[in-house]
Amino acid sequence: MFKYYVKLDEQGYPVADGQPAITATEGMAEFVAYTTTDKEYFLRYYSHYRQDSNGNWVAPDNLPSLQVSSLLRSIQDQGQMIVDRDETIEGLKNDLTTAKSSAESAKSAAVQATEANATLKANDSLHDSAIMELSDLLFSQLAPSEPSASETTNIVADGSTSAVTSVQS
């Protein structure tokens, strides 16, 4: 691909007093040649070419048409679009694979957490049962026993308080 820049007059023709430049400056139009033949013809006869209102370059009837170059440019642009699309698809495939892997990891972690939660609930239930059994055992050992026949009970009352005492005989 060859790029040249020229100044245009009001009708779209390159100004005859200037030569095509390789670098762009203010107010210059770009001409792109995709073939060596188009480049050579443009450099020799640049003042005969015209840029139409759509920005397309038109060759006079006695010079080769620039339609081939235009078609080549279109094909190259479409090829680049296809390459870009394929790269985007590959990137999205990689992102999807990564997302699936992350989802599987999260699912595995959730299963492990559920199992750990079930184990904790079972241990909590066993703990509660053990506490209840220990409480029952302690209360059964601390419960007051019935006085035996050999024991006598004396009740002493003095004022507002009373005391119960046992005496062994």
Summing up helix and strand content along with how strands pair, one would put the structural category as alpha+beta
Strand content bin = 15-25%
Order of helices and strands: EEHEEHEE
Radius of gyration: 50 Å
Using the alpha-carbon principal axes, give the shape.
Answer: rod-shaped
What does the average pLDDT come to?
80
- Ends distance: 127 Å
Widest sheet, order of strands:
1-2
Number of strands: 6
As a percent range, the share of helical residues equals 40-55%
Largest sheet: 2 strands, antiparallel
| Overall number of structural domains | 2
- The parts where pLDDT drops under 50 for at least 5 residues are 152-169
The total count of helices amounts to: 2
Can you walk me through this structure?
By secondary structure, the chain is an alpha+beta fold. The protein has 2 domains: 2-64, no CATH class; 67-140. It is built from 2 helices and 6 strands, in the order ββαββαββ. A two-stranded antiparallel ribbon has the order 1-2. A two-stranded antiparallel ribbon has the order 3-4. Strands 5-6 form a two-stranded antiparallel ribbon. A hairpin with a 5-residue loop joins strand 3 (50-51) and strand 4. It is rod-shaped, with a radius of gyration of 50 Å.
